[in-house]
Each structure stands twice: as structure tokens, then as C-alpha cells.
Amino acid sequence: MEILCETSLVREMIEGAQSAAPREACGLLGGRWEGEQLGLQGFRLLPNHAAEVCKFEIDPLDFLRAEDEWSEQGLAVCAFFHSHPRGSTRLSGIDLRGAWEEMIQVVCALPDMAEPSLAAWQVRNGHASPLAFKAEGR
Ligand SMILES: [Zn+2]
Fold first, then answer.
1. Is 23 exposed, middle or buried (0-12, 13-18, 19+ CB in 10 A)?
2. Rounded to the nearest whole angstrom, what is the distance from the C-alpha of residue 58 to the centroid of ligand 1?
3. Ligand 1 centroid vs 12 CA: distance in angstroms?
4. Which one of 27, 61, 90, 108 is CB 3.0 to 4.6 Å from 83, fit for a cystine?
5. Range of 70's domain?
């Protein structure tokens, strides 16, 4: 299983993570599965409604709006995005407990503002497996 993500979306995720720090940024990614490959073609940075610093919470209405708009383009909401302003790209215990199994988790880590890194995970039965994540195109 691998993920291909438009380069412009990678840039938007990194910018979102940098501007939200020291809080976590969050958002949704829209895409399409083709066999074992997920092509990500839409990104929406959304307000983080969590009161705590090391958490993220997306408004269900924002989720429904993204789902509606993307479905017109033949895309589904396929992944949650969030950032770890100080940590690594590994999912935290809170992330694992809150993960939906049918959604991919994309994390942008900013151990250093100048060196962002991205990783994608699939969570099954409370365990996260890393997925190949490649940026391509514009
Ligand atoms: Zn997290």
C-alpha cells in the first residue's frame, strides 16, 4: 500500500503545521484509492478545536462539508492530517486510541521548523503501520 500526494498539498500541510505551532495543526485529505495506491488530491486545513495543546479535534461539520465538496469531484475523505510541533512523526497514545481504522493518518513533525518531515500511518487494532508516502507532480 502506498500514498501518492500532490506536492502542492505537501507544501500546504507543512505551512499549516508551521503556522499553528506550538499548537497542533489539523485537517483532512481527499483522494481516491486505486487498488493498493491512494492518490491524495485535496487538502483542507481546519481549525483545531481541542482545548489541550497536544491534541487535535475536527468539527464534524467541517468533515461533512469536505466530504460533500470532494464527492462532487469524485474524491473521498481518506486521511486525517495533524502536526506534532515538537515530537516525531510517530503517533501518540492519544492518536492511536482516537484513530479510525478506515482513515489514513498523515503526521507532519517539526522537531526543527526548518526540517519538517511527513509520514503516513494505517492503524489497525491499536497498532500503527507506516505507509510509503511520496510527493509527486506540481
Ligand atoms: Zn498526534
1. middle
2. 13
3. 18
4. 108
5. 2-136
